[in-house]
Amino acid sequence: MSASYDVAAIGNAIVDVIAPADEAFLVGNALTKGSMMLIDEPRAHELYGKMGAGIEASGGSAGNTVAGVASLGGRAAYIGKVAADQLGDVFAHDTRQIGVHFETGRLAGGAATGRCLINVTPDGERTMCTFLGASVELTAADVEPDLIMGAEIVYLEGYLFDPPEARRAFAKAADLARASGRTIALTLSDSFVVERHRSGLREFIETEVDLLFANEAEITSLFEVADFEAAARAVQGMTKIAAITRSEKGSVVVTPTIRHTVEAFPVAKLVDTTGAGDQYAAGFMLALARGKPLDHCARLGGLAAAEVISHYGPRPQVSLAELAAANGLS
Q: Is residue 52 in a domain?
């Protein structure tokens, strides 16, 4: 069956608030550099009031990824929960404006639209505090069967492993994708997620996942090893394809029989690493949906990641399709 979408993604619909910060700000507000922590609504308002001037943009890991797919000229759809409030309006408008299909029903009378407060230090490292808000109210009823069954690749955000209702939505999407012969992709999202759900994630990867995305910290945490090579060998026998990003070292793609090591694209100045893994996944999946070899998929993913870390914000600021063409990766 032909696909209506290259990628359909399910994730936490979040508005990102990104601002520069120094080390003293992190220490003064008891923030662990480079980490992601969940916070409640009062803490979100408190931190927001203390942060420096920055930018606000529709985000969320999977939301950023489908934005990248669209920028590359791909067909993308998104499922995620926002509230019937101003930030929910912003998220819906931003998502549709870039050409992504987004029709998930709004939450009325409950929590506000989620937001992620991201403080970026001069070295480009991001420290994130996330108020999930309405995003955790995603349920299995929000998963549109026709949308999932009509996507070449169904992309699932690891953060959904946390709230029980969202995990049921996650499972429904995987079942629909499997029944219709679609590729199921999963991103581990954060070491925080891996530490909380290691056993469940490993079982899900072994039984359901065709394509796994992780960074070096996440994959070593998944297998509770300190050595990257040990983690790469372990995942090689677990899923069809694993794409592992290693920051300035590029990425490694493994299957049960082959391994590709792909160098990172050079970046004139590292500004903000927010969204790097999300855009890598966008480039990789679009290339895979179009039948490109795995090393090509990794290079396109690396190019998309290089663009996004050169500026503030988790989404492309130029046409990734034009950038890909200029670099021979169309």
A: no
Range in 108-117, 201-210, 280-289 the model is least confident about:
108-117
* Amino acid sitting at position 28: G
Given CA atoms 94, 275, 192, 256 in this order, what sign does their dihedral have? positive
- Enter the pTM of the model: 0.90
Instruction: State the CATH number of the domain containing residue 65.
Output: 3.40.1190.20
* Chain position carrying tokens 């996440």: 218
As a whole number of angstroms, the distance between CA 122 and CA 20 comes to 7
Q: Is residue 36 part of a domain?
A: no
Written as one string, the DSSP assignment of 188-212 is ---HHHHHHHHHHHHHHHHHH-SEE
Residues 6+ apart with CB under 8 A from 73: 286, 320, 321
Q: What total of structural domains would you count in the chain?
A: 1
Distance CA 319, CA 285 (A): 17
**Cα dihedral 65, 78, 117, 188 in deg (nearest 10):** -60
Whether pLDDT at 70 is above 90: yes
Distance CA 264, CA 28 (A): 34
The gap between the terminal CA atoms of the chain, to the nearest Å, is 24
pLDDT, tens only, 81-91: 999 998 899 89
Residue 221 lies in a domain: yes
Determine the length of the chain: 330
Q: Is residue 48 part of a domain?
A: no
Backbone angles phi, psi at 84, to 5 degrees: -85, 70
CA 193, distance to chain mean position in Å, is 13
Domain that holds residue 97: 5-13+59-110+133-326
Are the CB atoms for 147 and 113 separated by under 8 Å?
A: no
